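Final report, results section. Input specification for complex C-07:
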Amino acid sequence: MAIQVQYYLLLSAAVFCIGLYGILTRRNALMFLMSVELMLNAANINLVAFSFQHGNVTGQVFALFTMALAAAEVAIGIGIILVLNRNFDDIDVTKAATMRW
Amino acid sequence: MTSRPRLADDVNFLHGFAAVALFALLAWVFMTAGIGAPQGYDQTVGNVSLTDNTNINVSQARVDFREVDGQTRAALIQDGSVEDRVRVVNGTGYQTATIDRGGEVYAVATVGTTQSIGYAMFDIDTPGLESERFLIAFEIVGIVLVAALVGAVMLARRENDSNTVTALADGGRRLVGQSDDGTATDDAETLTGDPATAQGGED
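Structure output:
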C-alpha cells in the first residue's frame, strides 16, 4: 500500500513552515540561509511526491536540478555573508540597512 | 558550561506565529483536498496479450515490446515453471520480474526508476518511465554552478589597494592589539612583540 500524497504534502508544509519561522524570527544571516534551504527542500519534497503521484520521473529529475541550484545559492550566500561580516563587522541582517557605507 | 542546543528565546514569537498559522492552513487544505491514489511507478504490465508476431526468442522464452499506458515496455512470457528472475540476454538493459496473472506466469521487464532518471537527464531515447527531456536544463545548471563558484571566490577575496589578501590561519580569532578598523594599535607590539603578527590581518 503506497503512502497517500497528502502525507508527503503535510511533511513538505511542515519543513516549509519551519524555514519560514526561521526567516521571520531570526536575525542571523547564517540562520536565514539555513531557513531558505529548508524552504527550498520543502519544494523538492513536493516535486518528488507529485512525480510518484503521476507515475513519471519528471519531478524527480527536476528535484535533482533544484538541489544543484541550491548548492549554487549557498556558495553565493556564504560569500555575501562574508562580505556582510567584513563591512558591518556583524552578520545581523537588520544592521545592513544601507546599500553604501 | 554546557553547549547543548537551546531554543532561541530572543526572537519575536509573534512573527513566528504567522508560520504556525500558515502550517495549520496548509494542513487543513491538504487533508481535505481529496487527491486520488498515487499511480506510482508500476512495475507490472496491465492487460498484456502477447502476440507471436513481434517476439524475440530469448532462451526458450518470448519477449514482446509493446506500448502500455503510452510507454514502451518489454513483457517476457515464460511458459512452464515459475522463475524468480528471468534474464533478458540480448543486452536491452531491462529489469525483469515474474508476476502471476490468473494462474499464468508472466515475466515482466521494465526499466528501473534510477535508470529512467539518468535517461531523462541526458535525453537518451530508451524505453523507460515517462519523463520530460532535461539535457538543456542539465547544461544550464552546469553553467550556473560554474558561475556560482566564480562568484563565491570573487566575494571571498579581499582586495585593498590592489593588494590581494589571503586568508589568515588564525582560527578566526581577532588578532591581539588590532582595532576594529584593521589598524594595529600601540599595544600590539607590546603584547605580541611581532609587528607582522599584529598587522597580519591587513597585509
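The radius of gyration of chain A is 17 Å. The interface with chain B takes residues 2-6, 9-10, 13-14, 16-18, 20-21, 24-26, 52-58, 60-62, 64-65, 68-69, 71-73, 75-76, 78-80, 82-83, 86, 89 of chain A (CB under 8 Å). This concludes the modelling results for the funded period.
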